[in-house]
Amino acid sequence: MCVIYVVVLQVFNGNINTIDGCATFFRRDRFSHVKKYEVGKSLFRGVVEFNKAAQSLTDALVPSVQKKTALSRLVKDNVALIVVLEAKFINQVIDNPGKRQLVCVANTHVNVHQDLKDVKLWQVVLQNPVPSYAFLSCTQFPFSVHTLLKGLEKIAASANIPMLVCGDFNAIPGSAPHALLAMGKVDPMHPDLVVDPLGILRPLSKLAHQLPLVSAYSSFARMGVGLGLEQHRRRMDPSTNEPLFTNCTRDFIGTLDYIFYSADSLTVESLLELLDEDSLRKDTALPSPEWSSDHIALLAEFRCMPRTRR
């Protein structure tokens, strides 16, 4: 059987500050594309272009004498894609059998530079600029620092829609972006918050959300005994419940990539097994003749949770 995939794609090509691509693929025999977001004046509907948000932010918050410096810090050509898909299979919700089964997928590639911790967190906070499930053009709404997760919260509340937030966040477990996504808030004393020369993360009280996001691979910690599970647990960090690494280069090994899901509407059915460092190091590092990327693949299978009558 031939399976056809559809892609929503934005590609940037440039220097070291440029991220080369962000894509969301889906099976056309299983899902249909419902909506992508219209962001600012971007020609690419459905793309969160951080540069346009950076321009709006500096216009609103930064004194004119500092705008050039601010834009130089914030403009990094990173993007996020947000798409809403509708399942073609039968919905099993108890309270309304046959109801449309939607899922919102946010996919991103956050800035890589370790000295730009404020920019990383700002991009994570900004990923979703849509204030409601009405999918109105974002030209009607000002960009603000807290609109990513707040937008997702409103979509989840108004449409009762499962969420997937995934990508290369260039943030290790315990960093401020990871804490915000995984725990819903950032400790005001977190060391990452010290780096904020433009004041784009203030007030700190806005660095919070109510989405029940959980890292898919953290479900390893909740699984019982089974064939192969102990081997996979050895490839997990017990202190973070995340993989020991998703990125393995000559200079760095650690976890930067995640699949977050809304735990009140989705449950993890299965996960792609993790690779071990020894097998990758036989070729020194990634990429290698066997593995084409310096990141390993993460994959999770989910099931929509039945909802009972209230």
Commentary on this structure:
With 310 residues, the protein is an alpha+beta fold. It has a single domain, classed as Endonuclease/exonuclease/phosphatase (Deoxyribonuclease I, Chain A), CATH 3.60.10. The protein is built from seven helices and 15 strands. Strands 3, 4, 5, 6, 7, 8 and 13 form a seven-stranded mixed beta sheet that branches. The protein starts with a strand and ends in a 6-residue tail after the last strand. The model is unreliable at 1-6, 38-49 and 127-147 (pLDDT under 50). Belongs to the CCR4/nocturin family. It is an enzyme of class 3 (hydrolase). Keywords: Cytoplasm, Exonuclease, Hydrolase, Magnesium, Metal-binding, Nuclease, Nucleus, Repeat, RNA-binding, Transcription, Transcription regulation. Component of the CCR4-NOT complex, at least composed of CRR4 and CAF1 proteins. This is poly(A)-specific ribonuclease.
